[in-house]
Amino acid sequence: MKRNLIITGGAGFIGSHVVRLFVNKYPEYRILNLDKLTYAGNLANLKDVEDRPNYTFVKGDICDYESVRDLVRENRIDGIIHLAAESHVDRSIKDPFTFARTNVLGTLSLLQAAKDFWQPLGYRVDGVPCRFYHISTDEVYGALELTRPEGEAPYGDDFFTEETKYNPHSPYSAAKASSDHFVRAFHDTYGMPTIVTNCSNNYGPYQFPEKLIPLFVNNIRNRKPLPVYGKGENVRDWLYVEDHARAIDLIFHEGKVAETYNIGGFNEWKNIDIVRTLIRVTDRLLGRAEGEDDDLITFVTDRAGHDLRYAIDSTKLSRELGWKPSLQFEEGIEKTVRWYLENQEWLDQVTSGDYQKYYEQMYRNR
Ligand SMILES: NC(=O)c1ccc[n+]([C@@H]2O[C@H](COP(=O)([O-])OP(=O)(O)OC[C@H]3O[C@@H](n4cnc5c(N)ncnc54)[C@H](O)[C@@H]3O)[C@@H](O)[C@H]2O)c1
């Protein structure tokens, strides 16, 4: 089947993996990557697919309703996979307005643009059933208790399921929660064929180095301090980014309309244990002695409203659609650290902001 898709936020971390997977796997689809190229968007993430005939980059803001409406109509779009967002919790604490604008109003503008084109067509474009697939986070569910802080994971007795009530604590998760509600409201009010997924923390190549794993690998390499919030006791559930992209592909094609699916790998780690693992793997790959960089760890004042534990129950996704993560954590971490060490040029460009100047120039010249 031929399809015309918009993937939003395709120049970001997860979006670039989703774009790559779709461009490679579905040569018969037309894939438009709609991205504003904020500080987090980097077209160098997609260098290997940028010249493919089934791929087009469109620089644009999801909040610009009229442009998005025209893009949907002119390209007879039948599917939207929506990843564009402001995604960093620390930034949301400093600037909540930007998060409300992009994550809430941006999602609303996309929904409205899709509805304008799709509703009069009965949610089928040229015979293809439409889909609005919204990518969200487990952080909307709030925080879980650390009832078993010692020993091995899981560190608590309960998990987030698709029935867990929303209870966001940061401006980031509040904005994502609000966008999830809008998506479901468009299904209930206008019959829009929507799907929402809530995923745990992702790790892997092409993540902006303000986030823990790329930041710390880079700092270890350069022997800079590793600032750990509080005592590093907070627990997160980690998933390799390509496994998330595979789940998105499966759910977009086979997920049931109006459903929610949790995505996670039952892979809980305390932040401090992640940091120790990163030091061990990075030092080994750099040929340094074990323990050489342990004293780079510095404990800093905890983040305001820092959620203690996230843990996702993704049983529904594996039971109904047969998805499971392909990588064990040790293997995924090794692959990830190796990638950042081998792609120092990418890291240097991103940390210096040079990638933005380069692509601005390139797009001015086109
Ligand atoms: N990173 C995670 O661990 C994680 C986990 C679960 C869910 N998510 C969700 O997945 C999505 C992608 O996350 P990520 O980590 O790849 O984010 P990211 O910050 O790396 O990328 C976001 C992308 O969106 C683009 N963007 C931002 N504002 C835009 C706008 N107004 N119009 C068009 N494009 C805009 C940016 O340029 C960037 O390319 C987000 O919706 C996030 O909430 C992320």
Explain this structure:
- Helix content is 42%, strand content 17%.
- It has 366 residues and is of the alpha/beta class.
- It has one domain (4-206, 239-267, 305-328, 355-364): 3-Layer(aba) Sandwich (Rossmann fold).
- α1 links the parallel β1 and β2 (30-35).
- The two termini are 32 Å apart.
- The structure holds nicotinamide-adenine-dinucleotide (NAD).
- Nicotinamide-adenine-dinucleotide binds next to α1, α4, β7 and β9.
Descriptors for this entry?
alpha/beta; globular; single chain; Rossmann fold; 12 helices; 14 strands; binds nicotinamide-adenine-dinucleotide; 3-stranded mixed beta sheet; 7-stranded parallel beta sheet
The Rg value, from CA coordinates, equals 20 Å
Quickly give the structural class: alpha/beta
- Write down how many β-strands occur, each being a DSSP E stretch of 2 or more residues: 14
Bound molecules: nicotinamide-adenine-dinucleotide
Low-confidence stretches at least 5 residues in length (pLDDT < 50)? none
Strand order of the largest sheet: 3-2-1-4-7-8-12
Q: What's the rounded overall pLDDT mean? A: 94
Spell the H/E element sequence.
EHEEHEHHEEEHEEHEEHEEHEHHHH
CATH topology title? Rossmann fold
CATH homology-level superfamily: NAD(P)-binding Rossmann-like Domain
- Strand proportion, as a percent range, falls in 15-25%
Largest sheet: 7 strands, parallel
Fraction in helix = 40-55%
Count the DSSP helices: 12
CATH C-level category: Alpha Beta
Q: Please state the overall shape, judged from the principal axes of the Cα atoms.
A: globular
- Distance from N terminus to C terminus (CA atoms, Å) equals 32 Å
